[in-house]
Write a structure and sequence with these properties.
two-stranded antiparallel ribbon, 9 strands, about 30% helix
Length: about 260
């Protein structure tokens, strides 16, 4: 048995433990989102988050990240929310200078991959300019797994030597990219019993559970289509059930991407 310190957790790590990353998207979206994520980390089972570098709460998120160094923080690359960090992106923005809707990319309308590469690289570099090192990459609205976008995403992951979220599908070989074995999109899985969770994921050594905890503020209320469920997810993550289930005694090892 090996003793290991992971973030703020002191654990007895066993070789058969299931390694679980509980990751919150949208850090930096707004102050209310940021506070919800930090509470889910400090008072619940959250271990990881990814940051929107173009969000109005970005500076606040970075301050909180530096105050909570055990929280893994990656970059939440975006093409569908807010405005870009670079200019002249005719294939990615509308007439108001905002990123286009997700349907633009899902319908495979033309995008300039060089524009995409420069914008996403700028988003990563803005995060790095804070002095923090990102733990991994994922994307807002999962645009990274769309066929015309995935190659740029993988190029940047390789360039910065960063793990990525395992939402890329199984049709290609990604052996040169580090990721967990399984990606769970439904945070409600946390409410299952220990035996149910272990049975559901018995084929995997490492999993990520995605979530979106937040406190509802004006920015979130006025600009997002996904609002009320966030406060419910925060409640799940900080519940006694979650904290009593995801323990080393039950065979779960809570980690972040830097521990892969």
């Amino acid at each position: 048995m090996q003793i290991k310190i992971i973030g703020r957790h002191y654990t007895e790590q066993r070789t058969d433990d299931m390694k679980v990353i509980v990751n919150a998207d949208d850090f930096g979206y707004s102050n209310g989102v940021n506070y919800g994520i930090i509470d889910a980390y400090k008072n619940g089972i959250l271990t990881s988050t990814t940051c929107l570098t173009n969000g109005c709460g970005f500076t606040h998120a970075i301050q909180l990240a530096k105050e909570n160094s055990g929280l893994g923080v990656g970059v939440h690359l975006t093409l569908t929310s807010g405005q870009p960090l670079t200019g002249n992106l005719s294939s990615l923005t509308d007439s108001s200078g905002n990123f286009k809707n997700i349907s633009h990319y899902e319908n495979k309308f033309y995008i300039d991959t060089q524009e995409l590469y420069v914008e996403w690289k700028t988003q990563i570099e803005k995060f790095l300019s804070t002095g923090l090192k990102p733990t991994h990459l994922d994307s807002h609205h999962h645009v990274n797994n769309l066929p015309n976008i995935k190659p740029v995403f993988l190029q940047l992951a390789a360039e910065y030597n960063l793990p990525v979220r395992n939402n890329l599908g199984s049709s290609e070989n990604y052996s040169d990219i580090q990721m967990v074995d399984y990606f769970e999109r439904q945070p409600e899985t946390i409410l299952k019993t220990t035996s149910e969770i272990k049975n559901d994921y018995k084929s995997y050594e490492t999993i990520e559970i995605m979530c979106h905890p937040a406190y509802i503020d004006k920015v979130l209320r006025d600009s997002s289509s996904f609002v009320t469920p966030r406060i419910e997810e925060l409640d799940i993550l900080t519940s006694k059930h979650a904290k009593n289930t995801f323990t080393i005694a039950n065979g779960f090892n809570l980690i972040n991407y830097s521990n892969l």
